[in-house]
Structure formats: C-alpha cells, structure tokens
Known about the structure:
mainly alpha, 13 helices, disordered C terminus
Amino acid sequence: MLSESLRVPYRTDDAIGTTAVGSVLTALVGIGSVVWIVLLAVWLPVGLAVTPVVALPSLVLRGYLLDVVDGGVRGQITAPSFVRWGSLARRGAGSALLSAVYLLPAAVCVGLVIGAGVATVVSPPGFEGALQALTGVVIMVAGFGLLVYGLVYLYVRPAARAVFATTGSVRAALGVRRVARVAVTADYLTGWLIAMGVLAVGPALLLPLFVVAGVVGVVSPPAGALLVVATLLLGVVSGFVFRVSAAWSTGRGAATGLETQFPAATATDDEPGVTPRGRPTPDGDTPGEAIAPVQTGRTVGKRATPEPEPEIPAHDAEPTADETADSDAESTSKHDTEATSESDTETDAEATSESDTETDAEATSKSDAESTADEDDSAFVWGVDDADPR
C-alpha cells in the first residue's frame, strides 16, 4: 500500500497540471490564512468580509482530497483532475462542517482550560481556597482530555471523511457506530499509519535544505535567500503531493470497513480507470490495469482506443441479392430435375411391370388355347376310328 500511495499522484496523464494547480491552492491557503488572521486582529469588519474569498481555495482543496479518498475506497490507482470546481467547493464545505462538528469536544476542552486559566490569573474577589483547587483540577482534566481527544481525532477523522466521501452524507459520517466499524479494521490501521508516516516524514526531509540555506546565507545572503525560496516552493509542492498520498492510503484502508456497511456505494463500476480491490471477476479473471482519466477543459474524459473492425474473408462475405436469386433458381431447377427423373423412373417401372404382366397373361392364354385344341383333335380322331364300321 505504501508504494501505491506514493505513486498515485503521478499516475495520471495531466500529473504536471494537477500538481501545479494543487500546489498553487496549497500556497493560497497558507498565505490567505495569515492575511485573514491579521485582518481579523487589525480590522475585524474587513476580515469578516473577505472570509469567503480566503476560504474558497481551502474548500476546493478539501473537495479534491475527498475525490482522492473516494478513489482509494473504490480501488482507483490514478489521481483525479481538478474539474467541476463548484462541486469541489460544495463537497469541501461539507468536509469543513464535518471537521467542525468533530472538533466541538476539543473546543469545549480548550474553553475550559482558557476559562480556568483566566480565572486563576485574574483571581476575582472570593476566589480562593476550594475554588482555586477546583480550578486547578479543571485545568488538569481539561488539558488531559484535550490531549487524549486530539489523538482520537487524528485517528477517527480520516475514517469519518472516508464515510462522507463514499456516501456524500454528513449525517452518515457523524454516525459514531459507522465510523467506529471502519476505524477498528486492520486495513484502516495500516492505511492510517502509512498516511501519518508520509505526512510526518515528508516535511522532515526538507529540514536539511533549510540548514544548508542558512549556512549559504551566512556566506552569501542573496544565494541563501534564493535557496530558502526554492526550498519553500519545494515544500509547497511536496506538501500537496504528500497530502494526496495520505488521503489515498486512508481511503484504501477504509475500503474493507465501508464495503460491509455500504456495498452499493463502494461497488466498483465497470468503467475504464477503475480497478477492483484485488477481487477476481465473475469469470475468474484478474482485472487489469486502469486507464487514466484525461482532463479536457472542465470535464474528465476516458481515453478510448478504437478497436479495428475485423476483416471479413472473401469466402465468408455475405451474398448479394443477385447471387441469392441465382442460388435459389439453381436449387429450384435441381429440385425439379430430380423430381422429374424420379417421376419418369416410376412411370417406366409401372409401364414395364404392366407390359410384363400383359405378356405373361397372353402367353398363358395362348398356351391354354393350344392345349385345348390338341385335346379336341385327339378326341375327334378317336371318335372317327370308333365310328368306322370296318
């Protein structure tokens, strides 16, 4: 899973464009946050007025990471492109709302710590004895609770985001049981550890570059400043890439828990660009490599290779109308000839049989007549002899 998550940001035809857009959005989020905080501190009405503008890059980036998580859940091995920005912003707003709800317990703990600390520092009249001891206990409990819940939030929040990315429902992502069933799986734990490792180790690799930039700055300040700027740019780009890898690994890890709860939502579509999660197809074949989506303007199209039409051999070609008519005529003529031949044969046989019968009858009749004549002659002679007086 680690190697796949590290390769996902580059497995797309427009990897350079996607990385550039994501890096710009990441930089805008960082710069905009600093400017927004300064405006809120210096000029509150202006800071509140520019809040939607400052939040827009963050919402788009959140929506894009949701698509990455959804791709990991469905087993896609390519990173999506920045298309349909309005939809990305709306989904990003849902992700921000989800994070705000999950951060409410932490906000309560922070409020208790701040309130108890202020009360201890101000120490109003009558605030002594048992009240001071109770304030100290509140600070300790709230601080420990904030630490524990912070760790729980880091582990549970990606699982809730995976549920939201799969179902598109904030209500479903707020279901404690649903999220817990996803978070307790071994695959999710593996994906979460990979994500935390990528997010922690990735930026740490840039620390030596800052050290080198500081050393170079002592010798040559312009060169040191240029190296610092280059390191910052590299940090912005790598930060976006690492976030994509981490989001994909958490989505991939949450696939097992989500598949048991939302089989229809996590079903892999029979489209190019989608690879099932290691399951064989009904025919027993292992699915092949996915085809990456291609960004075309504001939509994403699938790269389709036209299949060549099979060549039909000359002897297999379909007969024309004339050839069919000739064939039918030949068949009819042959059939008539055979029928006529059979009829003639039968007629000859019958005629021969009748002729033979007649011949036999005539021969028999003639033989009988001759035999009768002989008898008559013999009788006549004997009769003459008997009548002779001599």
